[in-house]
Amino acid sequence: MEKQTARPAEAAPHNLILEARSRLTVTGVRRVVRCDPDSAVIETSDCVLNLSGAQLSVTSLDLERGEAKLSGRIDALEYTEARTPGGLLRRLIR
Prior knowledge:
The protein has 1 helix and 6 strands. It is mainly beta. It has one domain (15-82): Immunoglobulin-like (Sandwich), CATH 2.60.40.2000. It has a 6-stranded antiparallel beta sheet, with no helix packed on it. A hairpin with a 3-residue loop joins strand 1 (15-19) and strand 2 (23-27). The longest helix is centred in the C-terminal third of the chain and has 7 residues, at 87-93.
């Protein structure tokens, strides 16, 4: 008898739609880490998305669908790797 292993749940695809630098739709969202008028940090299925701008606000958030909508002036988008859970020591041992 073969042993079956459970497949990990497939991550939602991550996409960005930026309209006129004032409306942003992000898919593949796991959570909004923080959002203030000058910056936002969003954890996606692939990585972490860092936004900077002015008058930023989350206008819609649906974590079941993995979608966030933001408005305000968007000056920069930057991706960083997702952090490894477990603290500094676990990251150093990797």
